[in-house]
Amino acid sequence: MAWRIKQVTVCCLLIMVISACASRGREITQEMANSIVVGSTSRAELIESFGNPIGQTYNENGLLQMNWMYIYVGYAGIGSKTQILTVLFDDSEKVKKYTFTDSIPGDGVRLGR
């Protein structure tokens, strides 16, 4: 009987470890996104605040666009959160435009300026 209890306990622990939560990137709060000032916040300031972006590209006009992303998947895959910050810079590497999308379930999507 004791052997059976140990088997069940080990099995439950393995399931908990395998199905644990996971995240990627750095969480972006609405307050952090609101601190971005169009025409004032620089590329260097954003990297200092949000870390290195997950990607960057140049648009058809030669302007730099950088993307930050945070993904969280809850325990056993229940619940998730995705946040994406996309920033377009002007020629002087100041924010020209940005979009912040926060897909917290039931909380809607929030957009930047």
Please, could you describe this protein's structure?
The chain is an alpha+beta fold and 113 residues long. It has one domain (21-102): 2-Layer Sandwich (Beta-lactamase Inhibitory Protein, Chain:B, domain 1), CATH 3.30.1450. Helix content is 27%, strand content 31%. Strands 1, 2, 3, 4 and 5 form a 5-stranded antiparallel sheet that branches. Residues 12-19 and 106-113 have low confidence and may be disordered.
In whole angstroms, the N-to-C terminal distance is 64 Å
- Which overall shape is indicated by the principal axes computed on the Cα atoms? elongated
Question: From N to C, what is the helix and strand string?
Answer: HEHHEEEE
Can you summarize the main beta sheet? 5 strands, antiparallel
- Rg over alpha carbons: 20 Å
Stated plainly, the CATH topology is called: Beta-lactamase Inhibitory Protein, Chain:B, domain 1
Chain-wise SSE layout:
Elements: H1 2-18, E1 22-24, H2 30-34, H3 43-50, E2 55-58, E3 64-73, E4 80-89, E5 95-102
Antiparallel strand pairs: 1-3, 2-3, 3-4, 4-5
Quickly list its features.
113 residues; alpha+beta; Beta-lactamase Inhibitory Protein, Chain:B, domain 1; five-stranded antiparallel sheet; 3 helices; disordered C terminus
Summary, kept brief:
With 113 residues, the protein is α+β, with helices and mostly antiparallel strands. 27% of the residues lie in helices and 31% in strands. Strands 1, 2, 3, 4 and 5 form a 5-stranded antiparallel β-sheet that branches.
